[in-house]
Amino acid sequence: xxxxxxxxxxxxxxxxxxxxxxxxxxxxxxxxxxxxxxxxxxxxxxxxxxxxxxxxxxxxxxxxxxxxxxxxxxxxxxxxxxxxxxxxxxxxxxxxxxxxxxxxxxxxxxxxxxxxxxxxxxxxxxxx
Length: 128
Prior knowledge:
- The protein is α+β, with helices and mostly antiparallel strands and 128 residues long.
- It has two helices and seven strands.
- It has helices at 2-28, 121-127, and strands spanning 31-39, 45-46, 61-73, 79-83, 101-103, 111-112, 115-116.
- The strands form two sheets. Strands 1, 2, 3, 4 and 5 form a five-stranded antiparallel beta sheet that branches. It has a two-stranded antiparallel ribbon with strand order 6-7.
- A hairpin with a 5-residue loop joins strand 3 (61-73) and strand 4.
- The longest helix has 27 residues, at 2-28.
- The protein starts with a helix and ends with a helix.
- Residues 118-128 have low confidence and may be disordered.
């Protein structure tokens, strides 16, 4: 019985270690190279193969390589991303209207009750 519990615990910790490693990679990733679509008529770049003005006019859309960057509002922490822009999203923050953007990782931080939650393998090993 104890051997089964030990094996279950080790499997659980192994899964947590892999999950934590993936989370660290995402947190350190500030930009991604992606396939995007550019409207030759408007000049807009989007992740979807549509143009907002295409319903009215026929626009030619071509596939391009773009860089997707991740941002967080410096005031309220609202997240956004930009395509092919180095200095933050074009728009103001949708929550507070600020134009102050800070770089952030691809992984969203888990916040519970106003506190950032970090569950690491080290903290679980201390519990056992």
